[in-house]
Each structure stands twice: as structure tokens, then as C-alpha cells.
Design brief:
388 residues, alpha+beta, Butyryl-CoA Dehydrogenase, subunit A, domain 2, 3 domains, seven-stranded mixed β-sheet, two-stranded antiparallel ribbon, 12 helices, 9 strands
């Protein structure tokens, strides 16, 4: 019965892609259906990252799609599909490709690109993005405590970073630190195996359990000048990367809702109570319809953002903030409705809905919390900042 039902992309946004992009997106779906979807809950339960999947993921050749000539809409839909299958794998993909590899494209020197870019795009080496600190999250721009002190052709790094995705196993980190000589924010390619780097897994998470987040301690870590991102001179360069990443998290909110709708509709059609499918009850149909409406509204918003990126080269920070905050807010309602449809089965990971519900909380919070993104939009539309 389900095969005859309409897709969760109810208004057919995928048709806006080129024929080649639609075919490539189907390749992504086929890969995820075979290699990820059947295993994602088990990875999540064990809080283990499937490193063995990386060569197969690399074979899709989708590192930084826009850099390879794909559209922004296609790039966003790839993130949505990855999230639809497993939010944790999508998060790994974004941290590595859309932050670390993108930084090499945007800010790397010719030497840095020659040494690292090809291997990073092919996932022969993995990267992380080390910005957040134990005491500084939303206020890290002004409060960054990690320091970089230059001695000749060497920089000495001291400080701590927290919530670093891929941090336990990555080969390199794009690490941000404040120059002690002038207070400017600098970016460094940090070899994670250098003496003085200590990485500790963050345990006991209730979301994105497959993602390997780390606390990173830096004690007199010596980094050569050749590994400083020469193209990064201020926190504005950080914002450039975060704007793109924030938009992709909006696409993650879309993917999370697609996953919730997929799971809830299947359950409602297949599960029987009082001798009838759950889907035959009016209140369940209302919940599914609201989930579909939220998902469609989010898709429409993100498709428009992709158009702005395509025609103008970028959406501004306020537009990115509205996209992330609004879609993640709708997502929170959507996954809650889906979990409700599952009843008691919605709180155990034997049924995928519990994982979808839990992972949504991370999307709601990272790349700028709902509150911070709301204030960014508020400042843009009033001309008055409510952020101290």
C-alpha cells in the first residue's frame, strides 16, 4: 500500500534539479538505503562511528558539491537525504566537507591545497572544525580564550575546545585561536597528533550519539607558520563558513522532518488498534497532515535560500539565521507529532522514531541556538541589537 502513496516531497521540489542532479541524488538514496539506513540505529545505540563506511561514502564523489559545479539546491538536498537516513552521518559530512574541506578551498594556500585537499575530498584524511570552547559558545566571537603566540616561524597554541565533531578520530582540525599580539582571530590547520593535543570523548549524549564529539585540550602545541590559514584574518572569515554551514543545518531540519514523516506514516498505515489501521483515525490523519505541512514549508523556505545563493552567490547572515531557526522550530513540532503517533513504541530505538526525535534536539541547538538566530533576525529587521 505504501508504495502507491505520494512522496514526502509533496510539492515536488526535487523537480527543480537538473536531470543529472536528480540522477545523482538517486545514487545517494541507493547508497543510503543499502549502507546506512539498515545500520544507523545500531550505530547510534552503541555510540560508535562507522569508519568502514567512509570509503564507500567517498566513492559518491560529493565533497563540497558546489565547488564541483552542482547547484546550491542539490547540495542542500544531499544534506537532507543524508539526514533522512542518519543525522549523525550527515553531521560528519557537514563538519568534514562543508567546514574543513571548504576552508581549504576558500582560505588555503597553494601549498596547503597541494598537501591536503585531494586526500580530504576523498576521505583519505578526515577533518574537524574547532571553534566552540568550554566557556564560550554563542559568544565565542568576543570571548575566545584559546591563544596563539608567534615565535619565529612557529605558533604556540594554548587553550581548550569543546563539542568538536569528529574530534576523537580526525587527522586535522581547523582550529581558531586569538593572536596574543593583536587580538585578531586566526585559523590553523592543526595536526591532531601533535604533542600537547589531548582529545577526550564526550560521553552520555542523548542525541547524535554516533557523532564522536570531543573535548580538546591544547598545551603549548607548536604549529608551523605553513599551517596557518593565511586567508583568515578575522572572525568575519569564520562567519563566512558558518553562514554556509547554518544554511545546511536548515536542510538538516528538512531531512529530519522527511525521516519523521516517513516513519510515522509507515507506522500509521501498518499498525492496527481497535481492529483498524491507526491511519484511519481522524486525529492521526490531522497529525500526519501537520507534519507534512511543516516539512513542505521548510522545503519551500530552503529552496528559496538556495535560489538566493545561486543568483547572488550567498544568502546574508540574517537570512541564514531565519532559515535555521524557523525550520528547526517546525522540525521540533514535527518530530514530536511523529513520536506521539508511535505511542509507547516511540520511546525505544527499536522503532526508528525515538532516534529521530532525540537527534532533532541537536539540530535545534547547534550552528546557533534558536534564540541566538532569532536575535540575529530581530536585529536585521529592527536595526536594534538585543544581543549584549
Amino acid at each position: 500500500m505504501e508504495s502507491a502513496l505520494p512522496p514526502a516531497d509533496f510539492y515536488g521540489f526535487e523537480a527543480l534539479l537538473s536531470a543529472a542532479e536528480q540522477a545523482k541524488l538517486q545514487d545517494v538514496r541507493d547508497f543510503l538505503a543499502k549502507e546506512v539506513h539498515p545500520h544507523a540505529v545500531d550505530w547510534w545505540n552503541r555510540a560508535e562511528f562507522p569508519l568502514e563506511v567512509l570509503p564507500k561514502l567517498a566513492a559518491l564523489n560529493l565533497s563540497t558539491p558546489v565547488q564541483q559545479g552542482y547547484s546550491h539546491l542539490f547540495s542542500g538536498m544531499v544534506i537532507a537525504e543524508l539526514t533522512r537516513a542518519d543525522t549523525s552521518l550527515a553531521t560528519f559530512f557537514m563538519v568534514h566537507h562543508d567546514l574543513f574541506v571548504e576552508a581549504l578551498h576558500e582560505f588555503g594556500t597553494d601549498d596547503q591545497k597541494a598537501r591536503l585537499l585531494k586526500d580530504a575530498m576523498e576521505l583519505k584524511i578526515t577533518g574537524a572544525f574547532a571553534l566552540t570552547e568550554p566557556l564560550h559558545g554563542s559568544d565565542v566571537a568576543g570571548g575566545m580564550a584559546t591563544t596563539a603566540t608567534r615565535e619565529g616561524d612557529t605558533w604556540i597554541l594554548n587553550g581548550a575546545k569543546r563539542w568538536i565533531g569528529n574530534g576523537t578520530f580526525c587527522d586535522y582540525m581547523l582550529l581558531w585561536a586569538r593572536d596574543t599580539s593583536d587580538g585578531a582571530v586566526r585559523g590553523f590547520i592543526l595536526d591532531a597528533r601533535l604533542p600537547g593535543v589531548t582529545r577526550t570523548p564526550i560521553e552520555n549524549k542523548i542525541a547524535l550519539r554516533t557523532v564522536q564529539n570531543a573535548d580538546v585540550l591544547l598545551e603549548d602545541v607548536r604549529v608551523p607558520e605553513a599551517d596557518r590559514f593565511a586567508g583568515i584574518n578575522s572572525f568575519d572569515d569564520t562567519k563566512h563558513l558558518l553562514r554556509g554551514s547554518r544554511i545546511l543545518v536548515g536542510w538538516q531540519a528538512v531531512g529530519q522532518q522527511l525521516a519523521a514523516f516517513d516513519a510515522a506514516r509507515s507506522y500509521a498505515v501498518e499498525r492496527h488498534q481497535f481492529g483498524r489501521p491507526l491511519a484511519s483515525f481522524q486525529l492521526v490523519q490531522e497529525q500526519l497532515t501537520r507534519m507534512l505541512g511543516n516539512t513542505t514549508a521548510s522545503l519551500g523556505l530552503m529552496a528559496r535560500v538556495a535560489q538566493l545563493q545561486q543568483t547572488g552567490g550567498r544568502a546574508d547572515m540574517a537570512q541564514a539565521a531565519l532559515a535555521k531557526s524557523y525550520t528547526s522550530s517546525l522540525m521540533r513540532e514535527t518530530v514530536a507529532l511523529g513520536r506521539s503517533i508511535f505511542g509507547g513504541n516511540g520511546i525505544i530505538t527499536d522503532y526508528r522514531m525515538a532516534k529521530i526525535f532525540a537527534d532533532a534536539e541537536a539540530i535545534y541547538t547547534y550552528e546557533g541556538s534558536f534564540e541566538i538566530n532569532t536575535l540575529i533576525v530581530g536585529r536585521a529587521v529592527t536595526g536594534i541589537s538585543a544581543i549584549l
